[in-house]
Amino acid sequence: MTKPPYKTPTVDRALAATVKESKAPAISRAAAALRLLGKSDVPLGLQAIARELGLVPSTCLYVLRALVVEELVSFDADTKRYALEAGILTLARQWLRRNQFPDLAQPVLDRIAETFGVTVLGVQIVGLDHIIAVAVSRSGATIQLSTQVGSRFPALISATGRCIAAFGDYPEAELEARFRTLRWDEPPTFETWKRQVAETKAQGFGVDESSYISGVTVVAAPVWKGGGNPSHALVAIGISSALKPGNVAALGEALQSRARELSGNLTGA
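RE: above sequence
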């Protein structure tokens, strides 16, 4: 049985807002269209894409035609629907060649997943905007919590967000503004969340027990590629009833230890 560890963000609001507020609308529209098609399990028609992105259909058609020419999007003349094209792999391949983290993290994720019976992610942190799953490992447990490489989530959500706030240099006012936009199953107050952020900084890893998703525990530890704010994080996700309190602490310590080693490998220390 497979369940998603992170809830899918509301695509139309998030992408449409990005396009509307951008100072480079042409680029934002193209990127939003690619993200939307990447999230969809099926090809989409012009009207559906335009509606999700908050675009006039004629404008949306112009963007899609340009992406088809660049071989980043395909168009099926029979169904009149669009999907990602293989050209997107060229861009992904170049990123994978220069980014060490997924290769270095994968064996670490595999060991932790097997030892603790959880799903483990390696995520890249993009400031306070979002995190992106760049490596995934799943245990052999009957009930699995899974996500896909490339999935994006709000930066400050769950245990990872507590790590970003605890170890990053961000003004409290900005953290609070971002916090107010997050969606939780059992939302903490900002004051409670701040106390949890302080605990995260003290112990070196963050824990979210059922706040983000009811019945799910998320544990995360920060990774640094250089100085400044964390660049990545290791994130473990499991069913709360299957994780005893002692196991949560042991899991957090294992993540913290492996994250420290990864940081050394990434920085050459």
